[in-house]
Amino acid sequence: MLLFDYLYLDDPQVQRHLGALSGGxxxxxxxxxxxxxxxxxxxxxxxxxxxxxxxxxxxxTGSYSFTIEPTPEARFQQLLGLxxxxxxxxxxxxxxxxxxxxxxxxxTIELHATLSLPDPIAALLAASAAGPLAKAFGALGxxxxxxxxxxxxxxxxxxFAQAGQGIQTxxxxxxxxxxxxxxxxxxxxxxxxxxxxKQQAMRVQLDELTDGPVxxxxxxxxxxxxxxxxxxxxxxxxxxxxxxxGANRAQRRKAAQPAAAPSKLITIKYPGALLDPLAITR
Length: 282
Known about the structure:
Order of helices and strands: EHEEEEHEHEHHHEEHEEHHHEE
Distance between the termini: 15 Å
Radius of gyration: 31 Å
Structural class: alpha+beta
């Protein structure tokens, strides 16, 4: 059996699928063990015509029981054993359009790929470190004695504080949401995939997820059709972006007007698919 490092594991989803395929959920397994020991030996001696033998050996037996609790990794390996080799399992290698069209919603696939975040989300997360610093600048500006700082510097400090507050507001909207990653195959396939990762299922930091090739085991939730690109726009991830940016009243009024076309975070075309990952390993 090969050993993997689990970077992501959605155990609740694994348990749901495992229960459906195996006819029930996997619970603790009772086990027992017994042992036997023996010690001592025989003592012999003789005096003239008289001989004697004394047996000094003794033995004891014991038994104990214990419970084996399946780990999330063990459950995933059991699910993998059930689905691999079935009609609903596919390891994605370079394939032509005809083979790709046989991929169906609900199939479980294994994909070797690199992961990346859309640029706006990556930039936002990278800027998150400035949030507390910006808040401190705002507090510092309010504590400065009047006239001790020139108006231009004070204005810059307040603007920085507003920007930090905006960043934190947007980050709060991301809290608990699934983050959309782009999966690019490493084996020459021209397909592109969107992998929605639940933050509570991540076992490593984001930079480790995006640092090199990984193996994604996922369920296909939607396949992108010909001439029907799939897009994720900014408003699907964030609400009230103008408020998050610390906009003034005029900017908020402008933002309240219907937008001609929302900004796109991700757009993928045929051939491509949306994936609900079970595990990501390396």
